[in-house]
Amino acid sequence: MVESNTTLPNHRVEYDRRLRSLSRTRQSNTIVESNTFIELDTIVESNTIVESNTIVESDTIVKSNTIVDRTRSSTAFVESNTFVASNTFVECPVESNTFVEHVESNTIVESNTFVESNTIVELNKIVELNTIVESNTIVESNTIVVSNTFVESNTIVESNTIVESNMIVESNTNVESDMMVRSNTIVESNTIVESNTIVESNTTVESNTIVDCVCRVEHVRRVPCRRVEHDRRL
Questions:
Q1: For strand 216-231 and strand 87-101, is the pairing parallel, antiparallel, or unpaired?
Q2: 74: closest CA among 108, 101, 92?
Q3: Strand ranges inside the chain, DSSP E
Q4: Could you give the CA distance from residue 103 to residue 149 in angstroms, rounded to a whole number?
Q5: The dihedral formed by the CA atoms of 171, 174, 175 and 179, expressed in degrees to the nearest 10
Q6: pTM for this predicted structure
Q7: What Gene3D superfamilies does the annotation carry (predicted)?
Q8: Mean pLDDT for the chain?
């Protein structure tokens, strides 16, 4: 029996020694029997497991507040939600309000993206625009940027090889000749590859601007939302 490759030469030496001892056993009465046993069993097992998990999280928040006081002002509110999967669903409600005299402007942009291996992509986008204008010219700007990145990668590779070869040769010369060869070969290969990748990125930007003024006019405009439904099938 041979395991891996370290004992293979010893097996060959033992096999040659047995051949020499058997080849010398001849009798003077010219009766020689030759029996050869050959058996071939080959077992090959290969298991490959590949696991790859990728998580990407990106959060971006932008806040901008502008305050300026004039005779005109406008406020816009936009919401857009997009879902992508086997079905396509789009909703776009839009509301537009215009105010003169007192304008407030707040800009908030939020973007969340989640990607999973089950081919589901969800995109949520919310845009809010509010404008405030006042005439005291005060400007404040605060910026915060935070970025965290985590990468983890684990790789496990295991390979086990077992080779067994048993051969018996007996030589005695006669009319009878039986041949049998036994060879047992077992090859087992197990490969496990695991890769985990986690990337997290958080970005926050805040900007505040304040300026003063007087007038106010109100104007409201509404746009009806549009919905599109669409089925994709392979």
A1: antiparallel
A2: 101
A3: 32-67, 75-84, 87-101, 103-115, 121-133, 138-143, 161-163, 168-173, 177-210, 216-231
A4: 40
A5: -10
A6: 0.22
A7: Hexapeptide repeat proteins
A8: 52
